[in-house]
Amino acid sequence: MVERRATLGILAHAIMIIGVLIVAFPLYLAFVASTHTAQEIVQAPMPLLPGSNFWASYKAALLGNASDGGGSGAPVARMMWVSLMTALIITVGKISISLLSAFAIVYFRFPLKGLFFWMIFITLMLPVEVRIGPTYKVVSDLGMLNSYAGLTIPLIASATATFLFRQFFLTVPDELVEAARMDGAGPMRFFKDILLPLSKTSMAALFVIQFIYGWNQYLWPLLATTSEDMYPVVIGIKRMIAGGDSQNEWNVVMATAILAMLPPAFVVVLMQKWFVKGLVDTEK
Length: 284
What we know:
Elements: H1 6-34, H2 38-41, H3 54-63, H4 76-107, H5 113-122, H6 132-141, H7 148-152, H8 159-170, H9 174-182, H10 187-198, H11 200-215, H12 219-224, H13 233-240, H14 250-270, H15 272-280
Helix pairs in contact: 1-14, 3-14, 4-8, 4-11, 11-15, 13-14
């Protein structure tokens, strides 16, 4: 039996609170900056309490800001829509393709099945940065730049999700397969009526991970988009910041950063129970 000491509990909570403060303080500064004017932010020292420019900053961010500087003034509402659609397409596509590929690898017999699985698995060592040049060439030649297809299709396959679903399918008892055969269920009926319901928690955990992955994409959208209408919000933040001596509307930039954090945070909070269950539940 583990002995619980009050001093250890207090120390653990103190360390946790300090860690939360360290992580939350930059977010608080971003929020405070979004409530002040651009002139107030650049003053020294910067105000540490919220100001009175909250609605003006967020309205300028959402509806577009005709800035005098060199940064982009595109409406953030459009950027967030592009990011949302991109993240959802990537997430649903990754889960769908990974489910089917893992199902084929585990339950079908075909020549060189093991080789094909390891070829998929080896792609874990080939991130987007390694194949960025050839991928851009293909997407450009197909005319998919500045489109949802160009933003999502190159990122839609996932060796990680395929591996996780394969490992889960291997834990499904063989008796379920035999029972499905005796009832006359075909492969897709077995997949739809048995495997999919059993995979709900794993799918939920992967949904959270892949949604955040798709939402936070930076390098590929930076190459695949040149039109403001197709900027994801992460790229929009970068385009808002002008270089050189140009004046930046930092209050609008900080408001955009706060808005960009809300959808991923909402997904995590909404699906927290399923996310944790999908990662730790062993009673599949």
